[in-house]
Amino acid sequence: MIPTQTIDQPLDEYKSYENKHKENVENFFKELTEKSNIDVNANRSTSDKIYKKDELINKWKNKLSKLRVGTAFNILFIVLACSLPVWTIIYLVHKGTENIEISTQTILISTALFVLSILAIVGLSVIQALVINKRIKSAEKIKNKFETEREELVDEAYRQLNPLLNIIRPGYKIKIFKNTMPILEMDRHLNIGRLRSLAQNYDFKGDTNHNQMHERIQSGTIYGNPFIISSRLLHEMGTKTYTGTLFITWTEYSYDSNGKRVAVACSETLVARVVKPFPEYWHKTYIYIGSQAAPDLYFTRNSNNINNESDSQIDKYVKKYDKILKKMMKDNPQFTALANTEFEACFGATDRNHEQQFRLLFTPLAQQNIVKLLTDKKYGYGDDMFYGKYGKLNLFQFDHLTGEVLDENVSIFRMFDYDKIKELFYKVNHEYFKTLYFAFAPYFSIPIFQQTKAIEYIYNDKKEYDLNEYEYEHQISYLPRMVFDHHDTQTQSILKTSFISNNGEDTEQVRVKSSSFKIKQRVDYVSVRGGDGHHHMVPVPWDEYIPISKETDILIKKIQNYPIDIDDYKKEISDSLSSGSMGIDTNIDDKDLFLSYGSIIKILN
Q1: Closest CA to 554 of 500, 591, 597
Q2: Are strands 298-301 and 385-390 parallel, antiparallel or unpaired?
Q3: Residues 173/555/495/202 CA torsion (nearest 10 deg)
Q4: In which order are the strands placed within the sheet that holds 507-529?
Q5: Ramachandran region, residue 119 (left: φ > 0; alpha: ψ -120 to 50; beta: rest)
Q6: DSSP symbol at 115
Q7: How do residues 506-547 score in pLDDT, each as one tens digit?
Q8: SS3 sequence of 101-127
Q9: Are 204 and 190 a contacting pair, CB within 8 Å?
Q10: Residue 437 to residue 213: CA distance in whole angstroms
């Protein structure tokens, strides 16, 4: 069914969609609460008791801290009291050895100090043993009692909330988002049909080289136009500078003012550096959107963070850019600037190759929408966008769009307080909605994109196909890396996959290759000339990164239901295992069997 809903002015319409999503999130969490049948008030009462215990524990921790400070001072005074008679004795002995007569007054004062010191030592020791230590022991006992009571209350709170925690499962973000914005249809998996459509109809080349791994993948359609969100772990060999030092000494001779030859001790720290290969890893997230609109148009634009400038600074920049545009038109007759200089200055796609199709894409409404998005300081992220249009393929990259946003790690909700779980649930879903909304906002800003439907969408051609490298990598990324990594691995790893066979029952055999490095410590010796006029070999320790790899064969069977739909999800898993496609001996307790986000994976070797 073709959605009739359109977003004509994404920034102006954001608040209404945000409110709608907020309502959907609240209703969804309310349904989860009702389904779990937990006693919310009982948990609130237990949580209040826990927080009161926390206050008491902190109170007694502070008391213990003060008592321990008192102990430190008391011990210091005891040490000082012990040192006084020692120094008195040393003083008297020194007088005796020097045959100096010791006066009666000195003897009396020394005796008095000695007695007072002994009394102070005894008194402070008694205070430490009978008062301070006793109070510390009592305070620790009370604190430990409160901590034990707190642990019991926390266990009780978790028992109260476990029915709810057990049904907050992956898939909740997408389920709520689809309810808010049905025009964005989300795939359960990126299948080969979606990739084939992008490749054949939109010139998508793909990117599956061995130096990157697709850790998070979300595909779907927007008004029938296919899209892929790909969050990748990328790797390349860079360099690292290592530093070593060597301390040298030598003797030089000079003459003093009297003409006497004297020796002078000299020293210097020699420094040497070596540059060696070093593996670098980083994450990037991209959105690919296919569209038949303006199929011959190519351009790129980079973010310039213009939203960080004041209105007056933006006006000044636009006026300055007007002069740049005039010079560009003079130097390049093929380039014709739009009348809207503010748009040209903010968007900056001056490398465009097709003026007619550029104007077809960026109508006055589209220009207005884009300028609002890029200069926005209130709702979105401003100008953090890279946009490359390569014919029928649109590529976006945003600073605010990361793989963490696409992740659905439900362990973050493992808390004892119902209200804090609810607060975090609202926050996580708000961030997910806001991130995706503004990631697609440039697309919404351009009316012709929403008006141009894909051919396969118009004819409702929806076929299920097998999986592919992108989805394989996405699914195995949820498994512990140690399952695939070489046992000597000491760095991050890149997992790449290759199809082996189709085993039927939606089950495919796949080979996973883990590439990583082991580290061997080395030392280079670099010749450095010292201040003594000689060359010295300075040791420079460095790490050699040696490539290693391991191949693992797996069976992967896709699961169509989301974990959040717990009953259907469990039934599908049970049916999948009983079908025998994962191995005749497979059961849910098989140590080589893993449940990923959208699949069952069995390790074969």
Answers
A1: 500
A2: antiparallel
A3: -60
A4: 494-504, 507-529, 535-558, 599-603, 593-595
A5: alpha
A6: H
A7: 899 999 999 999 999 999 999 999 999 999 999 999 999 999
A8: CCCHHHHHHHHHHHHHHHHHHHHHHHH
A9: no
A10: 25
Residue 430 CA neighbour count, 13 Å, CB half: 14
Question: From its phi and psi, is residue 526 left (phi > 0), alpha (psi between -120 and 50) or beta?
Answer: beta
CA dihedral 41, 45, 46, 48 (to 10 degrees): 130
Cα distance from N-terminal residue to C-terminal residue, the chain: 45
Amino acid letter, residue 518: K
pTM comes to 0.85
Distance, in Å, from the CA atom of 452 to the CA atom of 468, rounded to the nearest integer, reads 28
Tell me the one-letter amino acid at 301. Answer: R
Taking the CA of residue 299 as centre, how many other CA atoms within 13 Å lie in the half-sphere pointing to its CB?
21
Q: 10 is written with which tokens?
A: 């994404």
pLDDT digits (tens, 9 = 90+) for 276-326: 999 999 999 999 999 999 999 999 999 989 999 998 999 999 999 999 999
CB 363 within 8 A of CB 447: yes
Structure tokens at 403: 């793989």
The full length of the chain comes to 605
Is residue 259 classed exposed, middle or buried when 0-12, 13-18 and 19+ CB atoms within 10 A define those classes?
A: exposed
Cα separation of 424 and 406, whole Å?
16
Determine the 3-state secondary structure of 349 from DSSP.
coil
Which residues contact residue 205 at a Cβ distance below 8 angstroms, ignoring those fewer than 6 apart?
Answer: 199
* Lookup: tokens for 509: 């055999």
Helix or strand (DSSP H, E) at 137: helix 133-165
